[in-house]
Design a protein that fits this description.
The chain is mainly alpha-helical. The chain has six helices and no strands.
């Protein structure tokens, strides 16, 4: 009796985790990773465009508009960092992952404290989140890259195949 796979919120995380655990073909995994990251960038621009429209229609101040854009990009960094963390979890490589998580949270807290003490504008508070999550994503990628021989190339066919496989898994779970 097979237990259904766990749900993971971010786009592609479960798919990549599934590839690591079940298939293990490095060149396919790397191609899927590049495709997932490329799709995220495309979706980011769509979402940021919608946010910009919403903020402008709502006649929000410019500092709010800039903060919304920075938080949007920071969300992409967070999602990517969580994907790399999911890969490391799947391979049971969590020691350094925990250290990186703590260090980047301390970095975020230090940036926030400095911005608050200096009376920085709203967008700089958002920037502290972007900086800490970008550092986290970069560190986790550098940790996962040699472990899984990852590259950032895009293989459209590999992404299509992986998405089809994922959709079949989702239908069985439902």
């Amino acid at each position: 009796h097979r237990r259904p796979p766990a749900r993971i919120d971010a786009v592609g995380q479960r798919l990549l985790r599934c590839k690591v655990q079940r298939h293990g073909r490095t060149h396919r995994r790397a191609a899927v990773l590049g495709g997932v990251l490329a799709l995220r960038w495309i979706l980011l621009f769509v979402v940021l465009g919608g946010q910009e429209l919403f903020v402008r229609v709502g006649h929000k101040p410019d500092d709010v508009r800039r903060a919304v854009l920075v938080f949007g990009v920071a969300q992409l960094a967070t999602t990517n960092a969580n994907t790399f963390a999911a890969l490391l979890h799947a391979s049971r490589t969590v020691g350094r992952l925990a250290v990186i998580n703590v260090i980047t949270k301390l970095l975020w807290a230090a940036c926030m404290a400095a911005a608050l003490v200096m009376g920085a504008p709203l967008e700089l508070l958002a920037l502290s989140f972007l900086v800490s999550e970008s550092v986290r994503a970069a560190l986790l990628f550098s940790l996962a890259k040699p472990r899984f021989d990852l590259s950032l190339r895009v293989d459209v066919q590999a992404v299509r195949d992986a998405l089809r496989t994922q959709m079949r898994l989702d239908k069985r779970v439902v």
